[in-house]
Amino acid sequence: MTTTRDSNGPQLDAMSLEAIEAELKQFENDERRRLGLPVDPTKHWFDEVPRTFTRDQREHTTILVSGLTMAHDLFIQAALRGIGYKVKALDVPDNDALQYGREYGNRGQCNPTYFTVGNLVKYLDGLRERGVAKDDIVKNHVFITAGACGPCRFGTYVTEYRKALRDSGFDGFRVLLFQQTGGLKQATGDGVGLEMNPTFFWAVVRAILIGDALNALGYRIRPYEVQPGATDRALETSKKIISDAFERGTALPVALWKARRELAKVSVDRTKVKPRVGIIGEFWAMTTEGDGNYGLQRFLEAEGAEPDIQLVTAWLLYMIWQGGYDTDQRATLRGVDKTKAEGGSKFSLAGVDVRKRKASLWAGERVLRGLFQTIATGLGLYDYHLPDMNEIAEVSHAFYDNNLRGGEGHMEIGKLIQNVAYAKVDMTLSVKPFGCMPSSSVSDGVQSFITELYPQGIFLPIETNGDGAVNVYSRVQMQLFKAKQVAQREVDAALAEVGMTMDEVRAYLRKHPQMMSPFHRSPHRAGCTAADLVYEVGARRNRLTYWKEQLIARATGKAGKHHADAHERLIAIARNAAAKTRKKGSIVSVAPEVDAAAADDAARPAVRRRQRRGQ
Questions:
Q1: Cβ burial, residue 396 (10 Å; 0-12/13-18/19+)
Q2: What is the C-alpha separation between 553 and 563, in angstroms, rounded?
Q3: DSSP 99-163
């Protein structure tokens, strides 16, 4: 600010920004008086959301949770009960919940809004029908949900809950909003009802990680089970063992070991040729296990495929990556990065030690990855690699800027590129809810660039809206037919390369029963599990050569170097393709690694060999 001094005291420079703002403000006030409009600031209407939950209310208040898979919700319920809370996990949202959501919700909302909001109203309405008074329901229950910001309607969920609860006769019901970037929003003061302390987070994080590991293991085993239903029975027993350990406060490692023993009883036959189908898309739609996505995971299994699901842990890693990325971006801003109280961003770095924050995020990621791998190993989930968020960001940035947020952001792009380029799966299924703005722009728009870049990839985007299941199933079946053909070609190529027949492979497995364990995982070579197994059997026939190659690879870090080279090549391909697209103003027709003449719809890109899963 520039000032001058005269006999009347300091005056603003006529050309200063403050002087211009003051003059504009004075003009606005004069015009308001002339037009008869109020000059004083108007207090805008605000819909107050009840969120008072104190420690004194904890004893008689039941916390309602929902929104993830059945295993996650069960373990979170048990974990919070184990640290002293009364918790109830709601059932998986079904079509009845959808009807409640449509009846009491606003029009034009996305599908997850109707399902999740309707699921809560359905539960409370059930209590009322059983004779529980409305005041008792409101007094003795509180619901925890997640929230966010950006183009996704996820940021307005709490408003939708408020409207639906009021219109259905539960005005005053408390909804606590757990923000992705701001923690839990509840009334503050002495004795908060839900204490966000290390004990709470330790319980919830372990529940999420164990739920992830158990789900991933189940989807690995169930498609190849010899006796139908054996995997589900083992999983139900395992869930009970683990949830009892959470609730009673007993040793979780012992519970994981007992669950592993139950799962080990399942007999599998991985010589069955099944295409592996990667499920990506909007977080809730690809995670839920009920009518919200037409039960796609089970449908794929029934149609002879192996679902490759996304884990909640990957979303936690994405949140950590966002924190680090935003910190790097804001640290280079010129001028003062104002605090939120001063009208700046809530991500402000004013007064923040950037190096300390970066170190904390780095340590948090390492702890999360280490804890997951410990749990996964304890359950028998071997050779599962969590995604590298930096790699996903790098390969997708040319098509979807990493600064664009909402939904899965750039992750959906990066996952599809890696799925096809590294032959991680035979088919990619993108599940998005009807009305989802960020996911629709990705699946319907940007992904078309990727499918043109890799025409050999099988990609199918579908919308879920609670209706039209037959149409969705039909579309999936048509693409699955192609994926099954790809999987069979992969197995045939593997058998030809190792010089064996499938009967010879089975004979080898009978002599080496450890490879028939439900926990066994063959090194990655193709999109199909059976093809991976054939390659491994072929390599193991000569034990001396096999173990010699394994020792040399570990000593030289060959696999890591190969993956790093493949990743750099993948980035170059993406950048070149995006540059051609921007220059020509059209979609790239084809962009293989070296030469357009070398493109072959039946061939995989050369970077696919021996890539780690999840990388």
A1: buried
A2: 13
A3: HHHHHHSPTT--HHHHHHHHHHHHHHHHHHHTT--HHHHHHHEEEEEEE--SSSGGGGHHHHHHH
Q: Which DSSP symbol is given to 410?
A: T
Residue 544 CA to residue 541 CA, distance in Å, equals 9
- CA dihedral of residues 84, 85, 90, 91 (deg, nearest 10): 0
Token pair belonging to 140: 């003795």
Residues 6+ apart with CB under 8 A from 237: 259, 262
- Which has the higher per-residue pLDDT, 7 or 491? 491
- The pLDDT of residue 424 is 92
In the prediction, which pLDDT does 156 show? Answer: 64
pLDDT digit string (tens) for 279-325?
A: 998 888 899 898 989 999 999 999 999 999 999 999 999 989 988 99
Enter the pTM of the model.
Answer: 0.83
Contact 552, 589 (CB under 8 A): no
Distances (CA, A) of 225 to 100, 228, 301, 338: 38, 6, 11, 58
Q: What is 474-535 written as a DSSP string?
A: HHHHHHHHHHHHHHHHHHHHHHHHHT--HHHHHHHHHH-GGGGSTT--PPP-SSSHHHHHHH
More confident residue, 80 or 404: 80
CB 608, CB 422: distance < 8 Å: yes
Note whether 275 and 458 are within 8 A (CB). Answer: no
The two structure tokens encoding residue 584: 């020509």
How far CA 242 is from CA of 82, 374, 402, in Å, comes to: 12, 15, 38
The residues, ordered by sequence, that sit 6+ positions from 339 with a Cβ below 8 Å of its Cβ are: 348, 350, 351
Separation CA 317–CA 324 (nearest Å): 11
Q: How far apart are CA 108 and CA 277, in angstroms?
A: 31
Contacts of 193 (CB under 8 A, 6+ apart): 53, 54, 55, 57, 58, 61, 142, 186
CA 215-510-373 angle, to 5 degrees, is 30
Strands 9-12 and 3-6: antiparallel
Contact criterion met (CB below 8 Å) for 552 and 545: no
Which tens digits make up the pLDDT trace of 13-63?
556 777 888 888 889 888 988 888 888 777 766 666 666 777 888 888 999
